TrEMBL record:
The lineage of its organism: Bacteria, Pseudomonadati, Myxococcota, Polyangia, Nannocystales. Residues 385-422 have a biased composition (Low complexity). Residues 38-73, 371-430 are annotated as: Disordered. This is 40-residue YVTN family beta-propeller repeat-containing protein. Residues 38-52 have a biased composition (Gly residues).
Amino acid sequence: MPRHPVSMWPVCLSLLVACGNDGSSSGYYTDSYGPGITGPGGTDGGGTGGTDGAPTTGDPPPETEDEGDFRVPRASGKYVYSASQTTDSVAVIDTANLVIDVVEVGQGPTVVQPVPGQAGDAGSVVVLDQGSHDVAVLRTSEAGATTVSIHPVTPGANNLAVSPGGNFVFVYHDVDGPEQLGAGSDQELSVLDVATGTAYEMTVGAHPREVVFAPDDSTAYVITAAGVNVIPFATLGAIGKPPLLPVVQDPGIDPATLEVQIVAGLGIALARVDGEPWLAVTQLPGGELTVLDLPGVPTDLDVSSSGAFAVLTLPGPGGSRFLEVPLPLGPGEFEEHAVPGEYVGLASVAADGDTMLLYTTVDPFARTEAPAPALPLNDDHAVYASSSSSSTSTTGDDSTASGTGDDSTTGTTTTTTTGDDGPPLPDPRQRITLARRDGAGWDLVTLFVEVPVVSVGIAPDSRNAILVHGADPGADPATAFSYSLFDLTPAFPLLKRQNTEAAPGPVLFTPDGGRAAVLLRDDLAGVRKVDLVDLGNFIVEPLLLGSPPEGAGYVEPTEKIFVSQQHPTGRITFVDPQGDVQTVTGYVLNDSVKD
């Protein structure tokens, strides 16, 4: 049943971002958390862990990937839009001159998303008003005049997704969002037709967590715990329960073990399950499901930004492999590549499709507390061998040792053991492998990174990356955290480690890949700053902030990075390409101060 707009008015209260990536593929993995690495055309960081896993005796331990989602002001055109829940308003900031409009919206505005396709420097966003269960559509002309229209939507929503053409807005409850759903169902969502103001209500699969759009703005794919709902925009008025297509053969699989990637440009879904040696490929919307048997158990599934191929990582203690799967899939088609002597469980593919970073966020070799054997072990041998091989003719059994060391575990006394008397093997989180396409294969370079990697992001131009590290237990506590700048272009790559006073938070890349911003915050230690990174020379300029940073974005027309901060009346700092800094404070109270 469609809903219709209830109000529209012009707003003139004049007082003296970050662009998204409309890629052809997207997806989710249910076990993700930690610092975000974001940016126009950038990549979500892969992994936060630093979680030591038990020694591997069978399947490799699951990796932890990061999706880096946070609520911050958003940019559209030359404007930045910042919502205030306490005053039920949105500040519209002209980044060219810092003139500010404060416009009224519904109750409790939270999520702000830009609407693509605006002319010139004009801007437009949609704002979710969670308190009044509606969506506000804001349109700002190049001259600075803003209009607002309000549209009722499904109650309980906590997220918005805008189609690449800016024509449709999905309003839904994201199971990974910060709010817990009260009475009701998270399976109800609304699709707002921006041009007509009509909202179409429908029911999808259980626990939606992401909406992916076809590049031609014709279809949406809603990823849920039960499968993928396919929603063609041409028939919105006739859809109440869009088709739900399973992405694995067994509907009883625990969705917490499932990773799904949608290749929207090809209309297919790829899925893997923790501990299973196969890849499921589902045609959308037909539903035909093909299972591709693999030579081992993958721990990660990644898709190139062009949708031309997928990558699966198969870690092993004596050496790992990754599979390159050309898309669309042919019968039994994949190419296997060895990573000799390295344990890699995650892949991050650069935008150019010719560069990858291979790494891990777990240490399967860590010593752990295990039950002591009731009887002496007669074959006390190594759990893992340290030998490596460049052979790619494997059968899926990644173990290179003659035994597992776990065949006698019935005692009640605990002791620290790895199944041998030797020293622990090196932590694989302290190594990262750069893979660069070389003809039909890949050239591999592995570097030591000193401190375990917990998250990785590659700049949009595919020339540089930022590696976020965990805390260094042997370092001065005042500078125990760090990140590394990684030049991916030389024959022997350059790594520059940057020590910090706080754990690196969200990371922003500019669309051209020339600059980055790393947010640093520790409220107890009084750390509130942003590191401004020149990716051309790796020079880092720290900028002290007046308040704790919350998020960052980029305004393309004015080429300004902005950092939103936690402040009772609103505070945003803008930095232009020359490093000039301007801050606006107090715009929530219609009393802005510029400095």
